[in-house]
Amino acid sequence: MTFSIVAVDAEKKEVGFAIASCCWDAGQVCMARAEKGAIASQANGNVAFLARFFEELSKGCDPATILSTFRSIDTEIESRQIGMMPYGGRPAAFTGTRCTPWAGHRVGVDYACQGNTLVGPQVIGAMAQAFEETMGRLHERLYAALAAGDAAGGDMRGKQSARLAVRKAGWGHPGEDTLLDFAIEDHSEPVKELGRILGVFETLYAILRKLTAFNKAPAGEKPSILAEIRRILDDKRDGRYLDWWESLGMAYHETGDIDNAADAFRIYLTINPAMRSVLEAGVEGGTFPRDLAARLFA
């Protein structure tokens, strides 16, 4: 009832998975750990395999040995489907003889994709081809594979959920190593919605990178960085981008560019007029510049 891909990008030191299903919470059958690997245990999935996979990797076992271990401890193994991608190792996949057809898998350099209850083998073929041919970061390649599988027909029972996660050491909350982790539940087009969410993420991440560069750049380079941020934001005038317009306005003010700072805050107030009272209170409280307020509210 599911199609998935587990993969690594050794150059960027990223590991991750992408999965879609007719069932709720497709991602519960997957796990990825930074610089360790990723695994999917689906069909009649045994989620106990997830943590066990990493335990066996820590002992120096390869996927073939780990699969043998799974066989020895699980009498229902032939109803399972497993994809394993160890960091710095070779992938492996398994499709039990009692998985609901069409069921199968394919492995390649740095990935394994697998699916069951699919419309046909073209789903896995499309996933593998998309992953191999797509350039970019791991999340882009994972999504390309998932979208290709979806477009090829995907789960023959329908659609409900999707998830994509990438782990990278040192990212996210301490100890979590989460670069990104998005789950879509109970949606008529979960894979397409996942793509939309990733598009928003890419925009916000690009702005954050440029603001970080702005904070580190010498004074002479700051205006060009702000111009790049403005180009990204120019057609994005809704509430989800409100704080970024504020950040842009304050960054312009920092460089002494009051005209562009005021223009950014005019757009900010167009998005949410109620924030005027917050800015006015900020003037009185010393958190919003008086010279900028004078230009903005003139």
Low-confidence stretches: none
Q: Strand tally, please?
A: 10
Query: For the report, how would you describe the main beta sheet?
Result: 6 strands, antiparallel
Q: What fold name stands as the CATH topology of the largest domain? A: Glutamine Phosphoribosylpyrophosphate, subunit 1, domain 1
CATH class of the largest domain: Alpha Beta
Give a quick rundown of the structure.
The chain is an alpha+beta fold. The protein is built from ten helices and ten strands. The protein has two domains: 186 residues, Glutamine Phosphoribosylpyrophosphate, subunit 1, domain 1; 80 residues, Alpha Horseshoe (Serine Threonine Protein Phosphatase 5, Tetratricopeptide repeat).
What do these coordinates show?
The protein is an alpha+beta fold and 298 residues long. It has two domains: 2-187, Glutamine Phosphoribosylpyrophosphate, subunit 1, domain 1, CATH 3.60.20.10; 217-296, Serine Threonine Protein Phosphatase 5, Tetratricopeptide repeat, CATH 1.25.40. The chain has helices at residues 48-58, 63-73, 122-133, 138-151, 190-216, 222-233, 242-254, 258-271, 275-285, 290-296; strands at 2-9, 14-21, 30-33, 37-43, 80-86, 92-95, 104-108, 111-116, 161-167, 178-184. Helix 4 (138-151) packs antiparallel against helix 5 (190-216).
